[in-house]
Amino acid sequence: MKATRILHDLGQSLWLDNITRNLLRTGVLRRYIDEFSVTGLTSNPTIFDHAIKNSGDYDDAIKSKLAERKSGEKLFFEVALEDLTQAADLFRPIHDRTCGVDGWVSLEVSPLLAHDTKSTIAVAQELHAQARRPNVMIKIPGSPQGVPAIRQALEEGININITLLFAQSAYEQVAEAYIAALEARVAKGQDVSHIASVASFFVSRIDSLVDSTIDTKLKTETDSAKKALLESLRGKVAIANARRTYAKYQEIIATPRWKALAAKGAQTQRLLWASTSTKNPKYRDVLYVEELIGADTVDTVPPATFDAFRDHGRLRKSLTEDLAGANKTMDDLEAAGISMKGVTDKLLADAVKLFQDPFRQLLEAITKHAGVSA
């Protein structure tokens, strides 16, 4: 039995972290769905930047829209929505069959709006209206300015993929925003059964930064016990952080507050594991997929990680294993002089910039790639 099929049977949805026009045109995405149990798709500006720059598939569409005097973000989002609405239609049978639990595709608001609540809300509303598909989620960063935008969008009935979550405390804030939005709808007599959200919790980037910090500390550390403590933390913090956050999710859905919403038909806000490709070549290439398998979660993986997992992934319900060990890892991190808050604060700031820069480059490249000067 295919590893991807077994993963699905263990309660975890497998989404593809990729979208290209070629993927749609050649039927490859259809094959992911039919043969490999892929039940959703995510995208981001970097994915579209790569797709547009590295193929001629978008040239005609871009030139046509330029001729219509469209440019910049308006042009980009029209092109992106052409791809994502096609993908949404492919996943629609899954969405219908699961009553809206699965079969989602995601489109991110402009990363340039990461610190602008009002504009984020306006763009989320606009993209939701343009998509005209019940299984399109709008991605909004879980930044301090993003949380109120998430709260309002959900109350308005817009399905949201909350991205760039690194800290458990940030997850708790967006979980509260989701619950509060649903409660507000219930108070107004509005349906909540069709509202869906995922909380995209980033994984491998945490180990990358922690491991780098360990390397720096080891250069000056002379105490052998502290050296051993630092070395023991390599490749463990991201998984521990995710497992603790899943435990918090389980606590939330066990509360009377959530159960009251569930009785009204509300769906849980599933945790989605993002950034699950292994950055360190010394680690197993499917490490973050194998160690975070659990019910009511989503794992979105890039094609290379997907292929590796399909080839040699080992499966077990790993997400709830050794929570005590996860707690110890986080305690040891602080004892080693590494602040988890410092790590996650830096990752959020860096991640916003890492999405903003490619997006600016993408907007510049769109016209150049189509053979028209910017």
In short:
This protein is an alpha/beta fold. The chain has a single domain, classed as TIM Barrel (Alpha-Beta Barrel), CATH 3.20.20. The protein has 17 helices and 8 strands.
How would you summarize the topology of this molecule?
Elements: H1 3-9, E1 12-17, H2 21-25, H3 28-36, E2 38-42, H4 45-53, H5 59-67, H6 72-97, E3 105-108, H7 117-131, E4 136-141, H8 146-155, E5 160-165, H9 168-187, E6 197-202, H10 204-218, H11 224-232, H12 237-253, H13 256-262, E7 270-274, H14 287-290, E8 297-301, H15 303-312, H16 323-335, H17 340-369
Parallel strand pairs: 1-2, 1-8, 3-4, 4-5, 5-6, 6-7, 7-8
Describe this structure in words.
- The structure is a single chain.
- This protein is an alpha/beta fold and 374 residues long.
- It has one domain (3-203, 245-319, 347-369): Aldolase class I (TIM Barrel, Alpha-Beta Barrel), CATH 3.20.20.
- The chain has helices at 3-9, 21-25, 28-36, 45-53, 59-67, 72-97, 117-131, 146-155, 168-187, 204-218, 224-232, 237-253, 256-262, 287-290, 303-312, 323-335, 340-369; strands at residues 12-17, 38-42, 105-108, 136-141, 160-165, 197-202, 270-274, 297-301.
- The chain has an 8-stranded parallel beta sheet.
- The mean pLDDT is 94.
